[in-house]
Structure formats: structure tokens, C-alpha cells
Amino acid sequence: LSLLGVILMALECTSALRFYVPSNGKKCLKEEIHKNVVVTGEYELSEGNGYTSSVHVSDTRGHT
């Protein structure tokens, strides 16, 4: 395979979603994810003086 072919294959198979959630906010991704698609993710929390942060991920049935 040529380098161009590898790059085109990588572009075809990847995508990203970035969003901001305000303090005490929630974000539902149900409408943005298609059926039978495996979703993996990374997250980054900004540091705040004296603030506690937590992340909760669940599916539409409440499974975590």
C-alpha cells in the first residue's frame, strides 16, 4: 500500500466529537451516536482550586 492509501483508509475509519460541559452540567450523546457503534473516549478535566470533579458514563438504560 502506498502512503496515500494508508492515509485515505485512516481518514475513512476515524472521527471525533468534542464538546464542553459547564459546571454542574450534563451532556447526552444519544442522538449523536448510531446503533451498533462502539464508542470509546478520553476526557480531560480542568483543575480548579478546591473544586471536586467527577465523570459518570452510562447508556440509555442506566448501565455504567
Automatic annotation (TrEMBL):
Main location (coarse class): membrane
Cellular component GO terms, alphabetical: membrane
Pfam family, one: EMP24_GP25L
Source superkingdom: Eukaryota
Protein's membrane topology: Single-pass type I membrane protein
Position of the signal peptide: 1-16
Cytoplasm as UniProt keyword: no
Subcellular location: Membrane
Keywords: Membrane, Signal, Transmembrane
Span of domain GOLD: 26-64
Similarity-based family: Belongs to the EMP24/GP25L family.
Record's protein name: GOLD domain-containing protein
Organism listed in the record: Parascaris univalens
Biological classification of the source: Eukaryota, Metazoa, Ecdysozoa, Nematoda, Chromadorea
